[in-house]
Every structure is written in structure tokens, then in C-alpha cells.
């Protein structure tokens, strides 16, 4: 539904490693093709030239060092890019005609899932094999038109949550009742009981408060009716906790959100005239503050960097681009929108699982990793890490299918260094097969990935 509404209203240097100071912005004018660019997440927030041509209606997700682009609508395809190799295109394949795929998410084993809007199915995808390996029917959750309108995805443990809008396609996509979050148990490979929502039309991406373990989703309800709000979800109990803040309190239909730490939500709203605003909601005080109001339906996405900055995708005609705001004061840090070529639509950041991170400790530096040695390995391979002193670095070994072969952690010493060796065995102690693998290391302030080959 997001693309349907936006289409009507808008008619809108490569190295083997990189840190969390990098983000990506999806741009499009909805006429032909879109583009994707890289940007620095710190001042002066430099934006690269176009890195790739993508479908004109697409979303991007980062996962374990790669950027996944889901082509929606008639494109119905998946593209996979490697930022550590000059944004090289690794995979590009169809997800099936007529499905209108919406989003992609990965479980702890690296299995990929894709939601669909125009068919009542959830897809399991073998990225390396460039194929759909399983389909799971969502028809049991549909309303009278036979389609549940499933869109955004988020993992909560081994449960995959799927927004289910339940809209009447014969009545201008009006909600037929309260929405749902479908719950797919990736361990059991089947759907569990859905989470009934208070509001209708869960429209925004799902974000989370990692401290409380709760999730947030924006329910837009009927457009113009101010009958929705930001809903709190307890994924463990499998239940909605009701609205954190209503659309009536916010002053418009909810179109986007970003949990920003400390009980603060940043929310995009659209008023009765389809003029969008960026608002700050403080759950401690209940106060709603408008930080920016556009000239029309121009605010497309909002994202938090886990620290002190908030990024806004602004599609204002002749003045579109990326804008940055200070979390504490709400003031804009950029002098104006930073040009992104085509107008920006979506912001993707390098966070695990595509969800909001825990606020980072004060950064002394990023995270770097030496080239693996020996490479090829048979099977032992070594790397040296360098980053924030005493930081805990999570480590993962990923195969070409995107599946997690091994995971663990190492603590950097007082000088910010650590040596680590992979013994060529998976988490169960079994020897890994010969092939190419990626080693992923991540701290609260940095991310890095390297490739190595195991020979036998």
C-alpha cells in the first residue's frame, strides 16, 4: 500500500571493508529506473555518485556486509550488491511474476524471506542459488478479496513478523478492520498465531526498542481519519500493548517512524492536505514537537544512526536530498538538502537485521580487519582486528548462500587489538566444505567484512 499511495501522491570509493559510518540511499522519480548511492553518516555527510541502477520502485536492506535491493511491482526481482567490492552486482534474479515483493529479512541461519503484496504467499529464497525454494500461503489471513496485503518484515528471535494490512482493493484500499502482524516460526517452518493489532493498516516499517524488547509499528488506518497511531508490540507475549501515541495526538496519518533511544520516537505524518511533517514524540513527557513541515507530500523516510543523528529523505521538488537533524535539540545540522541525484525514497543503514541498534558507546575509532592469512586456507585462517579498546566484537562466518556457518565473539585488548583464528569447523564442530566464505566482525562502533577461501 505504501508504494500505491506514494505513486499517486508523489508522481516523486570501494575497499574490502567499511565501517558503520556508511549508509545508502535509494532514489527514484518513479518514471523509469531508480538509483542507489552511498553516503557518509558523519559530517559533512558526503554523498557518492550513483552506484547502481535499480528498479524504479524498490527498497534496500543491509545484511551481513551486503546490500539487498527488492524490486517491487512489475519488477519482482532481487538484486544483491557488495559494497566491499566496488558495489559489484553479485546476484540478480526474478522472484516470480505478479507477486509484487515488498521486503526481505534473514533469520539467524541466514535464510532469506520475502513478503509479497499481490499474492498471498511468503517466499523463502536461496540467494546464492538465485531461486525461490519454498512458498508459504498467507491466504488464511486474508479478507474477502483473498489478499492479506503483506509488506514489511522484521525478525524477533526465531520469529519472522510480517505486517498484514487487510485492505479492500475494491474500495480504494480502505481497511477492512484492524491489521495484524503475521508470525512465521522459522525454526518450525510454519506460521504461528498472528498478533492482532489495535489499529488498522500497519503501514510503516517495524522498529524496535532493544532495551525493552518491544517493537513499534505505525498504523495509518483510514487516510485522513486520524484513527491510527504508533502501536507497541510485545513479541515474546505475541500481543499488542496498544498505542504509544495516536494520530490525533501527532496531528496526521502515520507514514514513517524511527525509534531513537531514551523513549523517543521520530515520526513522519501526513495531514488532511497531504502535507508531511517530521515530529518528535517523547514518551516520558507525552510531548509532540514538530521539527519540520514540508511543502507537500515530501518526507519519504527517516532513520536513526544509533547515536546523535537522524536522517531524513526529503523529496521537495527542485530541493530534494538527504537532510540531517540533531537528536537532542531537534535542530537541522545540514544547511539544506544534500543532493542525491534523483529524489531520495529510502535510507538503509548497516545495522544487524535491519533494525535500530543499541546506542553506541563513545567511539574512539571504527573497526578494521587485516587481510586473512593464509588465503586460501587449509583450513586454518587468521585475522587481526583493531578498534575501540576493550570492545566486544561479534564474529560470524558466512557461506555463499548467506548462511551463518559459525558465530562467536572476541574482546579487543586495552590497545584495541585482537588476533583471531578460524579452525575450519562450523558451530557444531563439523569441518566446513571447500569454498568461499565471508568473515564478518562487528562492534557497537564498527563493522568490517573480509573474504577467504577454504581448500581441501
What does this structure look like?
This protein has 456 residues and is mainly beta. It folds into two domains: 2-354, 7 Propeller (Methylamine Dehydrogenase, Chain H); 368-454, Immunoglobulin-like (Sandwich), CATH 2.60.40.4070. It is 3% helix and 48% strand. The protein is globular, with a radius of gyration of 21 Å. The N and C termini lie far apart (50 Å).
Largest sheet: 4 strands, antiparallel
Number of self-contained structural domains: 2
CATH topology of the largest domain: Methylamine Dehydrogenase, Chain H
- Average pLDDT works out at 88
Rg calculated over all Cα atoms: 21 Å
Number of strands: 36
* Strands in their spatial order, largest beta sheet: 3-2-1-29
Secondary-structure arrangement, i.e. CATH architecture of the largest domain? 7 Propeller
